[in-house]
Amino acid sequence: MTDGELRRRLDDYENLLEIGVELAGTLDLARVFDLALEKAEELCEAETSSIWEVDEDRQELFFRVVRGRAAGEIRNLRVPFGEGIVGSVARSGEAEIVRDVASDPRWRGDHGSGFSTRAILAAPLLAHGRVIGVLQLLNPVDRSFSADDLKRVKLFAGSLAHALDNARLHAALKRQFLETVTALAEAVEKRDPYTGGHIRRVVGYSLLLARELDWSRNALEQLRLAAVLHDIGKIAVPDRVLGKQAPLDAEEARIMQRHPVDGAEIVGAIRDLRPLISGIRHHHERLDGRGYPDRLVDAEIPALARIIAVADSFDAMTSDRPYRRGLQPPAAAAEIEAGAGTQFCPEVAAAFSRLYSRGRFSVEEGELSVQALFADSGGS
Length: 380
Fold this sequence. Notes:
This protein has helices at 3-24, 29-44, 71-74, 84-92, 147-189, 198-212, 217-228, 239-242, 250-256, 259-268, 277-281, 303-318, 329-338, 346-357, 363-376; strands at 46-55, 60-67, 78-80, 96-98, 120-127, 130-140. It is α+β, with helices and mostly antiparallel strands. Helix 2 runs antiparallel to helix 5 and helix 6 packs across helix 14. It starts with a helix and ends with a helix.
C-alpha cells in the first residue's frame, strides 16, 4: 500500500468515526435519517439514496426516507422480504454492489419516468443480530461503485444501524407517552357527554394552523401535546357545572373559568410537560385583555395559546350543546375573521382564513396533519 493510499484510508476512517459520533449524538429519528443519507451520498458520491425499514409483522420492507430525484418514484413502495435487490440484501444480511441493474434478474425497473437507476450499492442495517433495514445508494456520479465504496458503506451501516435502533426506541417511548397523555385527556373529556372528539379536533386544527405558519417540527410536537392537554383542568370542574344543560350562571362561569389554571398546575407538576404550561393556562386569553384567567393583552399571549385559541373556538362554535345548536362552518369562520385583532391573533386568524378559503380547515385535513407529524416523528 502506497503512502497516498494509506493516507486516503486513514482519512476515510477518520471521516467515518466523526459521522458515527454525530449519529450517536442524536435521538431525533428524522435527524438520524437526514444525516445518514447526506453523509452516505458524500462518502460514495451517489446521485441519490434511501433507507428502507423492515416491517417484521408483514415481512416487507417499506420506504422510510429518500433523497434526490427518485423520491417521488418510491415514496409509497413496499417490497416483500427477499424480493428485488433491496429485499434480497435484507434477507442475506450481506452488502452488495449491482453495477448494471438492467442485467440483474432481481431488478423490477424504475417506478415512473422521472428517474433512471443504473447502479445500486445496498447494505443491510444490522442491530443486535437482526436486520432492521437497508441503506441503498443509487448511481455513482461519473464513475462506478468500487470495492472501497463497499467497505466504507459497510462500516457506515454499522454506525447507522445502532443509531437508528436507539432513535426508534426513543420515538416509540415518545409515542407511548403521547398515547398515555391522550388517553388521560380523553377520559376527562368523557365527563362531558357533549364534547366528544373535541380534543382530537382541536389537535388537528391546531396543527393545520401551525403548519400554515411554517412552525418547525419540534414546535409542532410541543403544540400537539399542549392541544391534547388544553382542557385537562376540567377534571376539577364539578359534574353539576360541566354537564349542565343550560347556560352557566355567574358563579358557575367563574368555576368553569378556573380550568386553565387547574390544568396548568396539573401539567406543571410533571417536569417534561412544563413547556406546555403557557398554552394550557392562556388559551382563553384575548388580545383586548378581556379573556381569562390573567387578562393578558396582545404580545403577552404566548404563541401556543394563540394557536389553540382559534382551534378551540372554531370547534366550540361548530359543536352542538344542549341549550344551542352549533354554527355552520361558514358562520363560525366569519366569527374567527371578525375577531382578528380583538379576540384572536391577526396572524393566526389570517392563517385560518387562508386554510378555510382553500377548503383545508376541516376535521379530515386535521387528521391528516396529525398523521403526517406522527410519520415525521418515527411512526410507520
